[in-house]
Automatic annotation (TrEMBL):
Annotated organism of origin: Niveispirillum cyanobacteriorum
Transmembrane spans: none
Name recorded for this polypeptide: ATPase
One Pfam family linked to the record: BcrAD_BadFG
InterPro entries: ATPase_BadF, ATPase_NBD, Euk-type_GlcNAc_Kinase
Length: 291
């Protein structure tokens, strides 16, 4: 009988990553695909997942024929409840040996603490906090770009666009940052409105480096916008502590950058993650396989 394999998926709003592992947890291959937030559509999410899966299989020298004996653990942005989990499993374009799915925050927390209790705060394109206590997970924030995702690159970019328009209209500071944002989006309000129409969270997130760069140069408005996002992350950390997180990991591309804008005590409550979100996906896949 062929030994089962395990796929761990970290599907975020910007990209999807896949890790293929054997029964001993040894990595056989990894791959990257496009955005896998299920709010973009299950077909879009699965296309990104399979793009990453195919790349991981290729790196391992394998083809899709092994997927029927492969368990997959999906950590996907946009999942909010059990109904979402069932829809994801039911829309799989290929047959896997078994499927378990949860939020990308949950699998990231599993990976960060190697399956033990703990909390995480993810800050990248979006943001979300997660805590696992006594084996039970609970999400905090991460309810979507429109109403949540505070302390994220997308949130920072959105605030920068709003500030640029206010500055242009003479109702807010007009600084090097607002002029740079306006120029990046076409130079005038009609161009900004045209850009906003089809813009996704990842598009707003591309403006975050511009804000950070101007903050480092001393632009007062940029400093304020960065500090506001850092304060949002501190709010999440306080809540994780209130809920009894024995350890907290700060994850994502933006979180560590914003540490410099947080109060000193924050560094004292953070620990380094033991694994990444793909590792958490592999653990979830192993659960699907009965481990």
């Amino acid at each position: 009988m062929t030994s089962p394999l395990f796929l761990g998926i970290d599907g975020g709003g910007t990209r999807c990553r896949a890790r293929l592992a054997d029964a001993g947890g040894r990595t056989l291959g990894e791959g990257v695909g496009g955005a896998a937030n299920i709010r973009l559509g299950l077909d879009v999410a699965w296309n990104a997942i399979m793009e990453a899966v195919d790349a991981a299989l290729a790196q391992a020298g394998l083809g899709r024929e092994v997927l029927s004996t492969t368990y997959i653990g999906l950590g996907l942005a946009g999942i909010t409840n059990e109904a979402d989990q069932k829809r994801v499993a039911g829309s799989a374009p290929v047959t896997f040996a078994g499927i378990l799915s949860d939020t990308d925050a949950y699998t990231a927390c599993l990976g960060a603490h190697a399956g033990a209790d703990g909390g995480i705060l993810i800050s990248g394109t979006g943001s979300a906090a997660q805590i696992i206590v006594n084996g039970v997970g609970r999400g905090i924030g991460g309810w979507g770009f429109e109403v949540s995702d505070l302390g994220s690159g997308a949130s920072m970019g959105r605030d920068a666009v709003r500030a640029a328009l206010l500055g242009h209209d003479g109702m807010g500071p007009h600084t090097d940052l607002t002029r740079a944002v306006m120029a990046a989006l076409g130079g005038d309000p009609p161009s900004v409105v045209a850009w906003v129409g089809p813009a996704r969270p990842g598009d707003y997130g591309t403006l975050a480096p511009l804000v950070l760069d101007h903050a480092r140069k001393g632009d007062v408005l940029a400093e304020r916008l960065v500090r506001e996002q850092a304060d949002h992350l501190v709010m999440h950390i306080r809540r994780l502590l209130e809920l009894g997180a024995p350890a907290i990991c700060l994850m994502g591309g933006l979180g560590p950058v914003l540490l410099d804008w947080m109060p000193p005590w924050v560094r004292g409550v953070l620990t380094a993650p033991k694994g990444d979100a793909m590792a958490g996906g592999v653990l979830l896949a192993m659960r699907a396989g009965g481990a």
